[in-house]
Design brief:
Rossmann fold; four-stranded parallel sheet; 8 strands; alpha/beta; globular; 2 domains; 333 residues
């Protein structure tokens, strides 16, 4: 099989239409038992220490797993992806650049998609649309799981995260992934609702901290909105694939994300927001906007060199949850 790595969610229909298998490099990295060694590989090859662990990990994963082709999003994601891709080219990896237009222009996005389809030797645009129809049916199952999370209170934050984040590449096998989703929905519907008082939004890129959801639930809170992971699942209905990837908020800046976040925070009765950002990441500058505009209690936490929460961050999260719980109790009296 022809495997093509992706640095973030892109029009994955194009890869499937090319007869290839997409591999989300973030998911491959974070779930790999050698993930620390992948980061060390980047360090030993000269990556600066102020480059985030995600970028260093992706670099090490591509080389460590022998991935020969990748699609690198050089506009609309991490500002360091461009340079990381150049270092991979130097190692013989074939890189296809892809850009989400900053000015939110449909013609520019269509042109990018057509250019990528041509590079991957897709036979026709109709084949891409056929894959959209196929994948949208699977996405709908992921949306059902999301609904079971915030409407029925039967899905944990980590479960919600895992299934939504996997819609970036459908775990490389749409048929198998579809059956996995259907089985989970069948099992989850039989659960008794959880009784967590505090309802949280997790915003920002998926966390390095694999234990954050369990830790929060240990404090009596539950994430019922995973912002970026939900966006990976294309949570809106449209027959137009270009419009689909225009409505996908993550690549288009803080204000597009805010518009969606405010609607979901209100709809899901969110009590507080946890914003996750990597050390040295430009998105920490955007935090200035989010903090001012979000409209509910808010905390920023940083990811760094480790894959589980440190004691200081746990204490901050516990205090945040306790503050929210007090506000809930006071609002009822």
């Amino acid at each position: 099989m022809r495997y093509i790595g992706i640095t973030t969610t892109i029009p994955v229909e194009i890869i499937f239409a090319a007869g290839a298998v997409p591999v989300d490099l973030n998911n491959l990295f974070i779930s790999n038992k050698n993930r620390e060694n992948f980061v060390k590989r980047a360090d030993l090859d000269g990556f600066p220490r102020n480059v985030c662990t995600w970028i260093r990990g992706i670099y090490g994963t591509v080389l460590g797993e022998g991935i020969k082709e990748i699609i690198a999003v050089i506009q609309g994601d991490c500002s360091n992806t461009h340079a990381m891709a150049e270092t991979l080219i130097d190692h013989g990896v074939k890189v296809y650049p892809f850009s989400f237009p900053y000015n939110y222009d449909s013609k520019a996005l269509r042109s990018e998609m057509e250019r990528l389809a041509e590079k991957l030797r897709v036979s026709s645009w109709d084949e891409i649309i056929n894959w959209k129809k196929r994948l949208d049916r699977i996405r709908q199952l992921a949306h059902e799981i999301d609904g079971l999370s915030w409407q029925e209170n039967k899905v944990k934050g980590l479960e919600n995260h895992t299934f939504l984040v996997s819609t970036s590449d459908f775990e490389g096998n749409p048929d198998k992934f579809e059956k996995k989703l259907m089985q989970f929905i069948n099992d989850a519907e039989k659960r008794e609702p959880f009784e967590n008082q505090v309802r949280l939004c997790y915003m920002g890129v998926p966390p390095l901290y694999g234990d954050i959801y369990d830790v929060l639930e240990g404090y009596g809170a539950r994430v019922v909105l995973n912002e970026v992971q939900r966006q990976f699942s294309m949570p809106f209905e449209t027959d137009d694939i270009v419009e689909q990837y225009l409505r996908y908020t993550y690549p288009y800046g803080a204000f597009r994300r805010l518009e969606d976040l405010k609607l979901e925070i209100t709809k899901r009765n969110i009590h507080g927001v946890i914003h996750y950002a990597e050390q040295f990441c430009f998105r920490q500058i955007e935090d200035i906007i989010f903090r001012r505009e979000i409209g509910v209690p808010y905390i920023l936490i940083e990811g760094g060199e480790v894959f589980s929460l440190d004691a200081r961050t746990k204490m901050r999260l516990q205090a945040f949850v306790e503050m929210l719980r007090s506000k809930i109790v006071n609002s009822r009296t």
